[in-house]
Amino acid sequence: MKKKYGLLTAITLVIGIVIGSGVFFKAELILNATGGDLPLGILAWVIGGLIMIICANVFASMASKYEFVNGVVDYAEVTVGKKYAYYVGWFLSFIYYPAITSVLAWVSARYTCTFLGIPISGGECMTIAGVYLIAVCAMNLLSPILAGKFQVSTTFIKLVPLLGMALIGTIIGLKNGVMIENFTTVVSADVEGNPLFTAVVSTAFAYEGWIVATSINAELKDAKKNLSIALTLGTLIIIAVYILYYVGLAGALPNQLMMEMGEEGVLMAFKNIFGPFGNLLFLFVIISCLGTLNGLMMGTTRGTYALAARGMGLKPNTFQQIDPTTDMPANSGIMGLFLTSLWLFFFYGSNLTDQLFGDFGFDSSELPIVALYVFYIPMFIQFMRKEKEFSILKRFVMPSLGVLSCLFMIYATYFAHGKDIIDFMIVFVLVMGFGAVLDFRFRKRKKNED
C-alpha cells in the first residue's frame, strides 16, 4: 500500500479516534458510578489516562523500530512470535475493531436523535446507526484520501466544544457557585461495587482507540518517526483535554441533574453555558463522534487484510487484494462492514433490549478493550527480554508499568462487570476457536506443500 498519510494525519488519527464520543458518552456514567463524587471521578480520568500514556509509550518505542503492515500485529510478531501475532490480528479483526466501531455508530446516532428530538430507544436510532456505518465505510473504501482529510478536519472541529466547555464552563461555574457545589457535594454514597474501579473501567472506552492508529503503519510516510511522535504527543493532548472538559462540565449543571438526565444532560449543559449557541456546539459533538467512527473504520477496513498479507486467516488470496484505483483492501473493508453490522445487532440485543438474548450479554464497549490489555502483557514482557538497544527507562521501566497497568484493568473489570465476563468469554472462545481451526488448517496445508 502507498505512503499517503503524513504526521498531521497520524496525530489527528490518535486524537480523533480517542476524543469524540467516550468523553461525552461516559461522563454521565462515571458520575453515576461514583455517586456524583466529582474528585473521585477526576481521579478515575487521571488513572485511565496514565494507563493509556504508559501503554502508548511502549508501543511508541516499538513504532520507532518496526514498520511493516499493521502496527500492533507486527509488534506482536516481533516480540512474541508469528503465531501469537495471528491470534492478536484475529481478535482485532473479528472482535475488537467491529465491536468498538459498532458502539461508535450507535453513540453517533444516539446524539443525532437527541439533537433532533427523536427517541433513542426506537428503531430510528438503530437505522441512523446503520446508515452511518455504511456511509463511513464507503468513504474509506472509495476515497481513502478524503477519509484522511475528514479525520483531520473533524479532529479540529471536535476540540471546539471540548475546549469551549473547559474554558467557559469553568469560568461560569466558579462565578455562579455550581462548580464549588459539585466539588464539595456527593450526590449519593449508596453505589454498587467499587466506585473507583467501575469508573476507571468506564474511562477505558473513552481513552481507547489510539492503538488503531498503528493500522495505517504501512501507509504512513516515515512511519518509524511519525507514528512514534503521534502516539506520544497525541495521548498527552488527550488526557489534558479530557480532564479540562470534565471540570468545565461541572460548572454547567449540578451533578444530580446531569445524572438524572442521561444523554440529554450533555445537551442541557451546552445550552446553559452557551445559550442559543448551545445547539450549534452540540452539533459539533455529533461531528466529533462521526470523526471517531471514521477513525475506527480506518482500522476495521484493514483488519482481515493484516492477516491475509501474511498468508493467514480467512481466504488470504481474497482479502489481501488491493484495489488498483483506490489503493484500498476492498474485500477486507466489506468484511469489516459485515462484522460491524453483526456486532451492532449484538449490542442492540444485549444492551438496549432484553427481548432478544434474555440475560445473556455484556457491554461490548468495554470488555473487548480490557481483553486487548490481556494481549499486551506477553508483548510487554518479551519486549523487555529482547529489545536490548533501548535505555533502561524504555526497555524495563515503561513496559513494567505497562504490565502493572494491564493487570490493574483486569482486576478492576472483575468488580465492574461481574458475571458478564463469563458471557464475554463464551463469545471470545467461540470466535477465537474458529480462528484456531483456520490456523490449524493453514499450518497443515503449508506443511504438506513443504
TrEMBL record:
It is a multi-pass membrane protein. Its main location: membrane. The chain crosses the membrane at residues 42-63, 84-107, 127-147, 159-176, 196-216, 228-253, 273-293, 328-347, 367-384, 396-415, 421-440. Gene3D superfamilies: Amino acid/polyamine transporter I (1.20.1740.10). It is found in: Membrane. Keywords: Membrane, Transmembrane, Transmembrane helix. This is APC family permease. It comes from Aequitasia blattaphilus.
